[in-house]
Structure formats: C-alpha cells, structure tokens
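Hi support team,

I submitted a single chain yesterday and got back a structure, but I'm not sure I'm reading the token output correctly. Could someone confirm the output below corresponds to the sequence I sent? I've pasted both exactly as they appear in my results page.

Thanks,
R.
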Amino acid sequence: MSQQNIKFPKGLPIVIIIAVIAIVFISKSALTIEAGKAGVLFKTFGGGVETESPALGEGFHLIAPWNKVYQYEVRQQELFEKMKVLSSNGLDILLEVSVWYLPKTEQLGLLHQQKGQNYLETVLQPSLRSAARSVVGRYTPEQIYSSKRDIIQSEIFEETQKLLEGQYIQLNRVLVRDVTLPPTIKTAIENKLKQEQESLEYEFRLEKAEKEAERQKIDAEGKATANRILNESLSDKILKEKGIQATLELAKSPNSKVVVVGSGKDGLPIILGN
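Hi R., thanks for writing in. Yes, this is the structure output for that exact sequence:
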C-alpha cells in the first residue's frame, strides 16, 4: 500500500488539538506546595486575593490556569539582627538579637494582601529595631552588661509583640545573643565588678572570723561554767569518799603495796608499793 493511500480518521486532528489543549491546561493548573509551606490563591477574574478560605496546604492542587498561587514559608524561621542602640546615658551599644517567628497560617491571605511577601523587611525588622532601642534606652551600660540582660530580653519580646498586634505575624521568642560595649566602658565595668567581688569576699572572711571567735568564746564560757559547777559540787566529804573508793579498788590489785589509811592530806589514804 503506498503512502498516498493512507487515510486518517476525520476527527483525529480535533482530538489531537483537544489533547494538546488539555495537556497545556493541566500543566498550567497543576501545582504542588512543598512541605512547610502554604499557598495564597489570587483569582485574576474573581476578586483578587482569597482571604476568606483557608490557605492551600501541602501537596497537589489543581487551579484555574489564569489564577496564581503565592507560596509562604509557614514553619518557624529565625531573623538575626545586629544593631546599634543607645543606653540611658547616651553611649553606643552594639546589640545582636535573634527572633523566632512565623506567619499566622489562618490569616495568610490577609498578610499577603496587606503586607506582601516582603513582610519581614516592612513589618518585623522595623518593629524589632524600634522595640530594642526603646528598651535599651532605659538602662545603663553596666545594667545591660551584667544583671539586666534577661530582663532586657523579655522586655524586647513584649515590646515587639505589641507592635506586631494585628500584623498577622506570630512572635515566638526574642534572644539577646551578644552585647558589645565601647572598650573603655567595658574595662571600667569589669574593674568595678572585680572590686565589688573582692569586697564581698573580704566581708565574708571577716564574718567567718567573727563567727569563729564567737564560737570559741561560747565554748570557753561553757567550759568555765562546767568547771565552776564541778568545783562547787566537790565537797571534802565527797572527795574523801571518792578517795576511799579508789583505795579499795587499788587494794584488790595483785601488785604488792602498802596502804596507810588516813595518813594523807585531808585524811585520805596513802598507797605505797611498787
């Protein structure tokens, strides 16, 4: 059979055209949202950003080819900021802060509509910087460097959280990673802290010595009282009785001895022997 005699079904070109259109349609409509992300649907001919329905979750989705989906990371993320702030007395403090945050998935459409995908730069960073400057400005460099760091960290978190109210962003934690003071100020604070520590150690040694002296005094007074009571209780009759008891006990010993009764001082026995 020659090639000129091959005939195709009349409807085949239409089927091919439909198949191509279907493939193109499916390729444009098929969407896979990756793990840890969610999608915001933008309806080109249907009112724009979808804010009423929940965000598209992970997995495979089919959407109209004329619509768009904007994907957001909805897992916890970290923002690291290094900023210069002023202390209460106007000195420059270099602060390194980390923030743990994530967008509120249930309000992702509103976040996209009102803040956009660059919400980190337009909302979170300015809020954190403002809160950090406000909080650090209440403290001296010495307080920031030593005892107040945990309090400052907590206050920055609270201030930032207030600024983020109604911004569709969830703040989980603020961490003050490092505080850098001007070298001269840092040296002065360290020297002062060292002197305070030495003073506390000296006071501790003095207190310990005073307690030991008091203990010895009480011990000596106790012994003196005991001796006084003992002396007062030892009458001549008691001493004679004790001497006689001791003599009787010694007399039972097999060692040769001579006992002269009543010849000693105060009439106590004298024991002569080996």
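A quick pointer for reading it: The radius of gyration is 47 Å. Let us know if anything else looks off.

Best,
Support desk
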